[in-house]
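Margin note from the TA: students keep mixing up input and output lines. Inputs are the sequences; the output is the structure of the whole complex. Example:
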Amino acid sequence: MEWASWSDFWHMAGYGLYVWGSFGVTAAGVLIEVILLKRAGADTRRRLKRMQQWATSLEGEGQ
Amino acid sequence: MNLYTYASPANFYVLAGKLIPWFSWGAGLLAVWGLYISFFLAPTDFQQSEAYRIIFIHVPAAWMSMFIYLVMAFWGAIGLAFNTRLSFMMARALAPTGALFTFIALWTGALWGKPMWGAWWVWDARLTSELILLFLYVGIIALWAAIDDVRRGDRAGSLLTLIGAINVPIIYFSVKWWNTLHQGSSINLMKAPSMAAIMLQGMLVMAIAAWFYTIAVALVRVRRIILERERQTDWAKAILENE
């Protein structure tokens, strides 16, 4: 184990800002991508479903 | 059944759906293992102290930024040559994640450069060519978004991807070809790595985690693209009703 205590761990020998800034922004980037992806997937499916329902209702009226 | 079965979007949609959980869980577990090595097994560096730990993000992200671009160029070339629909969809599905890793490589590079070089940014060949890579990703995504006709957009974007591919060897060899502030590569296929085995292992585990992550998100994205483009087909309608 490299660290005597948790505060040592967060301090990173004075490089905490740089190390945690790197890992933190990476984690945030990944998280944002996953959230946007989920939202876009749900939006697309909802929109396509609506279009489909609309199309079938139009067909029904035509007959 | 053969491999070509999965060149059909309908079959690939189902296959991708089955693969996503495996790659997602794989990415998560590998990331935990990689982070454990990065912070608890890898020792303090005698020159850079703890700041060097940025390497466990920086190098895998930089590798991914270049690999993803090459994979995109590969799919674009296949699409242009054989007019296969799924290839173009794969290229589109990869681009945002490639751009994300390029941004991460640049960001972590800046945070590493400041304490070690005394500068967030320098216009040396390695940094500049990596910045151009980010502009290429953004430009390709913007081009795809700007062209409403899907098939024309596919072709234009893939053509731009292929032209821009010349930048990837320039990034990779920049530290050899020019006198850069950025250090040369620590890992080379031709010779033994110039770093401790545990550090190398941490970097490789993080790189594989990044690959799994990329595959997982690209598959999620390609499924959405498939559904959107195939919405007029019976199978897509059936999926929309049942999902």
